[in-house]
Amino acid sequence: MLHKLGTLQDHLVETSPFVYRGELLILESVRPRTPDNTHGGEHYLRVRRLADGTRDVRDREEFAACEVLGEFGEGFTFAAPFVRGDEVFVYASLGVKETPSDDIHVFRGSDLRAWEQSVAIAGVDERLYNCSVCADGERYMMALESNDARWPAFTIKFAVSEDLIDWRVLPVEEAILGTDRYAACPSMRRHDGRYYVWYLEHAGPWWFETWLTRSVDLLHWQQSPQNPILRPSTGENINNSDIDFCEFDGRVAVYYSWGSQKGDEHLAHAVYDGTLAEWIADSYPGG
Description:
Layout: E1 3-10, E2 15-20, E3 23-30, E4 44-49, H1 60-64, E5 68-72, E6 76-84, E7 87-94, E8 103-109, E9 116-122, E10 128-135, E11 140-146, E12 155-161, E13 167-169, E14 183-191, E15 194-204, E16 207-215, E17 222-223, E18 239-248, E19 251-259, E20 265-272, H2 276-283
Antiparallel strand pairs: 1-20, 2-3, 3-4, 4-5, 6-7, 7-8, 8-9, 10-11, 11-12, 12-13, 14-15, 15-16, 16-17, 18-19, 19-20
């Protein structure tokens, strides 16, 4: 099971710990109300080193002191990283939604400071929010959160790429999650021939939990019997959302948000004391 470690910062929600060149880093979607916003209250993206790069932080003070390694993507939010060798790919959409549809952009870099930017996915009559990328051994897969009006908000669609730059959204007849439910904030991994998606479930009248589901074909899904994976603890209001994580030094470092789902949001972290494969096995004890 996960062990919650406490709150780290207020008004910071979408974050992703990741490993790059052997160090534990974090990608942050800085919000206008994030206390240490250095871009005049605009959305932007930031990469920092967690502690000294060899472990997760211990508390708020240590998190606040984390070294900034790069700032970019002004106006963008809902960011997710993917590392391929010495290259980092960051996927994000615009924070201010001025049109009924928008795009997911990709930022590509190898030093965390200089980035090449292009459109990865063009939205069609929908807004696109959180996303997550994994490799399946043959190609790259993306889970993306959509408000497609054909289903209850939100729905998770899937896209495929050969190079992490050019993406093709799969037809919903072939791949989709959440046509019958609220499904948001995906974090996707590939393991033992299946796709695993951690996502936000609207589990009550105003109650939000992180659940885990899996699929072989991205169309037929099996929920974890251990759901919810994360649920609000005492003092965490009504929401545990925006989970992302990475395996580092034999443990899984987990970051998530808690709050009201109405603007009072906080960043917290947790740990699974084992590998990602062990966490998945614990989540599906029947195999």
